[in-house]
């Protein structure tokens, strides 16, 4: 059945380029994009700007660079501070780059289980304009939609608009880390441009569930993108005949957005299947998009050992913590794969509970690959 | 004939060949951030071997290659790097080593042949003092762009390497066009850069790949460099699509560089 096939549930970043993407890459009309001359990059960026309802767009090698460029462009005066969630990807999984590279200070606000930050806590975190002697200057608020560390939760358009109003009334900018913004748009049934209307900038991943091999896109005003271009060059993200990547990304947006609803359905099916295993518990109602957080309720089983044993059955997963596992669905995981994965989880539990000596060598620590991408 | 554009602005305008396009379309790929893109791994291993260093890895641009290299060698606050006043890093990389990396530049005049006088390099090295940053790195550029693509000889490079070593400094070579230098000098590229702790090599210029450069150095250096690359936003997923084209470039275009040098001479000779 799925003997040699590997069912990779570690992340939606593992999606491989489709045949259509490969053909598009091979046939792409290209030129030197550092001179803004690559026609495929130009066409793709224009299309993304239109889709997202912003003036302009810029292709970057990664979501990390998309967020870094955005924060640095909005906070280009020394002594800046940015408000963001304490569970956000920018704060936890981007090497602290906004500070170590960009000199911007973070002010974290607690993320709720649904991915939001309380509005009154955001307002309380804004530095008073008169307190300059002791305080950095707040210039930016960042949201993340869908919110990865909350399990792919969607921020509603009402919430986003409200945070946008707070930002505007305090003279701040709003950036959305929209790595999985299309998942949010599909799950909420809100057109993506409406969803991000309140934002000054958005970073959108093409290489996750949409399946492109490489890249993200930043969208915003023309003035913002002009600044972003220079920052991108400075960080080393200026690529030459980059149309080869934009061609694949364009196919991704065209072909895969329509498949995201299926990923959400499969995530729910996986959650329900795992919930039936008594050693695990999954809050199926909290599965809003393509992520499942599964908790281990049996004290004899650790997430690290579980993932290692799953690996022997060709199911790849990463621990989220010593007692929980994160699973991410994407269009290259079929319904059959989902059923196979559930079966393997059952088998893994049996093998681990047998107390078999062959697992004694497994070290009970979270693997070095546990992360929050 | 009338429609063809003869683009002499730069060797960055090279478009990917048919062989490169096929290689990109057929590349065996995986998530390189998780450390597992086989095409990237194969290409990086080959580049390390070609350059005579322990390890290599792929970055989106020469600017990032130089930026990472400087920042890894100068990862302690208060560092200074010695480089030519007419070097690409100093003039055309947005001052990133400072604005992004917090590293101070100490320039030494570049001679018309691309070198810096040895005694001026030595004079620029800081001794410990309350007022001074700490010199940690010397950067050379080979071929030297702003001098007209001049080659630094292996003897000169070795001499600068000895200066660096005897003062406890590292040596980085901006080798965007190092293959041009190797071909023009008739010196194998690994011998040419032997004295360097790290080299940044462009695939997207005369070698013709669509995107990218490679940094080479010790394994310890590359391990640090990987984290910086991620931090700067250069960690790409199924990057084998780009490495496949770069691999074709190294395999097929290095042998054509001598012809580019011949054509440059012809062009120069015909301009009266």
UniProtKB/TrEMBL annotation, chain A:
Q: Which residues carry this modification: N6-(pyridoxal phosphate)lysine?
A: 208
Q: What are its GO biological-process terms?
A: glycine biosynthetic process; L-threonine catabolic process
What cofactor does its activity depend on?
pyridoxal 5'-phosphate
For this protein, what reaction is catalysed? L-threonine = acetaldehyde + glycine; L-allo-threonine = acetaldehyde + glycine
- What cellular component GO annotations does this protein have? cytosol
Q: Which Gene3D superfamilies match?
A: Aspartate Aminotransferase, domain 1, Type I PLP-dependent aspartate aminotransferase-like (Major domain)
Q: What is its EC number?
A: 4.1.2.48
Q: Which InterPro entries match?
A: ArAA_b-elim_lyase/Thr_aldolase (IPR001597), Low_specificity_L-TA-like (IPR023603), PyrdxlP-dep_Trfase (IPR015424), PyrdxlP-dep_Trfase_major (IPR015421), PyrdxlP-dep_Trfase_small (IPR015422)
- At the top level, the lineage of the source is Eukaryota
| Pathway per the UniProt entry | Amino-acid degradation; L-threonine degradation via aldolase pathway; acetaldehyde and glycine from L-threonine: step 1/1
Which stretches make up the Aromatic amino acid beta-eliminating lyase/threonine aldolase domain?
8-295
Keywords, comma-separated and alphabetical: Lyase, Pyridoxal phosphate
Gene Ontology terms for molecular function: L-allo-threonine aldolase activity
Summarizing the function annotation, the protein's role is: Threonine aldolase involved in threonine degradation to glycine. May play a role in the removal of L-allo-threonine.
- Family recorded in the similarity comment: Belongs to the threonine aldolase family.
NCBIfam families given in the database record: GntG_guanitoxin (NF041359), PRK10534.1 (NF007825)
Name-wise, this protein is low-specificity L-threonine aldolase
What's the source species' lineage? Eukaryota, Viridiplantae, Streptophyta, Embryophyta, Tracheophyta
Automatic annotation (TrEMBL), chain B:
This protein is called what? Aromatic amino acid beta-eliminating lyase/threonine aldolase domain-containing protein
Which SUPFAM superfamilies does the UniProt entry name for this protein?
PLP-dependent transferases (SSF53383)
Could you say which protein family the record assigns here?
Belongs to the threonine aldolase family.
Q: Which cofactors are reported in the record for this sequence? A: pyridoxal 5'-phosphate
Write down the InterPro entries for this protein, in alphabetical order: ArAA_b-elim_lyase/Thr_aldolase, Low_specificity_L-TA-like, PyrdxlP-dep_Trfase, PyrdxlP-dep_Trfase_major
Domain Aromatic amino acid beta-eliminating lyase/threonine aldolase stretches: 7-268
Keywords of the record, alphabetical order, are: Pyridoxal phosphate
GO terms assigned for molecular function: L-allo-threonine aldolase activity
GO:BP terms for this protein?
A: glycine biosynthetic process; L-threonine catabolic process
| GO cellular component term, pick one | cytosol
């Amino acid at each position: 059945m799925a003997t040699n096939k590997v069912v990779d549930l570690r992340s939606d970043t593992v999606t491989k380029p489709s045949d259509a993407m490969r053909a598009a890459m091979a046939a792409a009309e290209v030129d030197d994009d550092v001179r803004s001359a690559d026609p495929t990059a130009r066409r793709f960026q224009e299309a993304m700007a239109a889709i997202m309802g912003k003036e302009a767009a810029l292709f970057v090698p990664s979501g990390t660079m998309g967020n870094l460029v955005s924060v640095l462009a909005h906070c280009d005066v020394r002594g800046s501070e940015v408000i963001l969630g304490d569970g956000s990807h920018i704060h936890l999984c981007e090497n602290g780059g906004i500070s170590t590279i960009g000199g911007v200070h973070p002010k974290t606000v607690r993320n709720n289980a649904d991915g939001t930050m309380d509005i009154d806590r955001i307002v309380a975190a804004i530095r008073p304009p008169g307190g300059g002697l002791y305080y950095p200057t707040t210039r930016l608020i960042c949201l993340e939609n869908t919110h990865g560390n909350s399990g792919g939760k969607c921020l509603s358009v009402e919430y986003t608009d409200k945070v946008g109003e707070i930002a505007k009334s305090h003279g701040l900018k709003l950036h959305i880390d929209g790595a999985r913004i299309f998942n949010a748009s599909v799950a909420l049934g809100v057109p993506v441009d409406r969803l991000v209307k309140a934002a000054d900038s958005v970073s959108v991943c093409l290489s996750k569930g949409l399946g492109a091999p490489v890249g993200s896109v930043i969208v915003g005003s023309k003035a913002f993108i002009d600044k972003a271009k220079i920052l991108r060059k400075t960080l080393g993200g200026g690529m030459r005949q980059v149309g080869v990547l934009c061609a694949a990304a364009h196919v991704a947006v065209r072909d895969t957005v329509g498949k995201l609803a299926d990923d959400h359905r499969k995530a729910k099916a996986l959650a329900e299947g795992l919930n039936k295993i008594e050693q695990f518990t999954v809050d199926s109602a909290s599965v809003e998009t393509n992520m499942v957080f599964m908790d281990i309720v049996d004290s004899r089983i650790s997430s690290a050992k579980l993932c290692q044993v799953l690996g022997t059955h060709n199911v790849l997963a990463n621990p989220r913590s010593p007692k929980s596992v994160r699973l991410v669905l994407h269009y290259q995981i079929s319904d059959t794969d989902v059923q196979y994965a559930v079966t393997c989880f059952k088998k893994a539990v049996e093998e681990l509970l047998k107390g078999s000596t062959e697992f004694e060598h497994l070290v009970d620590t979270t693997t070095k690959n546990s992360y929050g991408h | 004939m009338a429609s063809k554009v003869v683009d002499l602005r730069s060797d960055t305008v090279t478009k990917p060949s048919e062989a490169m396009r096929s290689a990109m379309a057929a590349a065996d790929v995986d998530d390189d951030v998780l450390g597992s893109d086989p095409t990237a791994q194969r290409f990086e291993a080959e580049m390390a071997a070609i350059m005579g260093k322990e390890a290599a890895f792929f970055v989106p641009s020469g600017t990032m290659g130089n930026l990472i290299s400087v920042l890894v060698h100068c990862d302690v606050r208060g560092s200074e790097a010695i480089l030519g006043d007419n070097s690409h890093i100093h003039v055309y990389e947005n001052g990133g080593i400072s604005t992004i990396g917090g590293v101070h530049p100490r320039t030494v005049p570049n001679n018309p042949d691309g070198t810096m006088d040895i005694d001026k390099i030595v004079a620029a090295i800081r001794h410990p003092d309350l007022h001074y940053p700490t010199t940690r790195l010397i950067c050379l550029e080979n071929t030297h762009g702003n001098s007209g693509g001049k080659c630094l000889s292996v003897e000169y490079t070795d001499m600068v390497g000895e200066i660096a070593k005897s003062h406890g400094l590292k040596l980085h070579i901006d080798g965007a066009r190092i293959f041009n230098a190797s071909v023009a000098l008739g010196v194998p590229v690994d011998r040419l850069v032997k004295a360097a702790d790290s080299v940044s090599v462009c695939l997207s210029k005369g070698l013709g790949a669509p995107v990218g450069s490679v940094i080479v150095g010790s394994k310890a250096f590359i391990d640090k460099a990987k984290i910086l690359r991620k931090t700067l936003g250069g960690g790409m997923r199924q990057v084998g699509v780009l490495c496949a084209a770069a691999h074709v470039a190294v395999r097929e275009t290095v042998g054509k560089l001598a012809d580019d040098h011949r054509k440059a001479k012809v062009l120069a000779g015909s301009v009266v």
